[in-house]
Specification:
4-stranded parallel β-sheet; 136 residues; alpha/beta; 14% strand; 4 strands
């Protein structure tokens, strides 16, 4: 299975704990999707609240399996940091894409879809579709 190309997922939050918890939740709700490479990139290198370009780049490299990397973010500066990394062009693996999706619901949808072996376009569509999930 190690030769299988899977979409990698990076979850970027201002909090290391939030990013790690959402990653755990998404994998658990995807039936323990252990094959899907998911990395949390939360907080700063020093453990504080914020975002870190270095942690995001390292997480993206760690989950790259050749089918693209889907990045989901929580709030404003996380989005800006990922956009800056994408604009630089050489900081993230080829095929890395910032997804416009809700953080928690989008992460679950992305991991479930990636676990089924879907490509990056399908993972992105599933995550974006999470915006339409109604709760009442």
């Amino acid at each position: 299975m190690s030769d299988e190309k899977l979409v990698g997922i990076v979850l970027v939050s201002h909090s290391a704990e939030v990013a790690a918890s959402v990653a755990e939740l998404a994998k658990g709700l995807a039936g323990g999707a252990t094959a899907v490479p998911v990395a949390a990139a939360g907080g700063t290198e020093g453990g504080g609240l914020g975002t870190s370009a270095e942690l995001i780049s390292a997480a993206a490299a760690a989950v790259d399996r050749g089918a693209g990397v889907a990045v989901l973010t929580d709030l404003g500066s996380a989005v800006l940091t990922v956009k800056a990394l994408l604009a630089e062009g050489d900081e993230l693996p080829d095929g890395t894409r910032l997804l416009d999706a809700p953080f928690v619901e989008g992460a679950v949808a992305a991991v479930v879809t990636a676990a089924a072996g879907a490509g990056l376009d399908a993972v992105e569509a599933a995550a974006a579709e999470a915006y339409s999930y109604r709760k009442v």
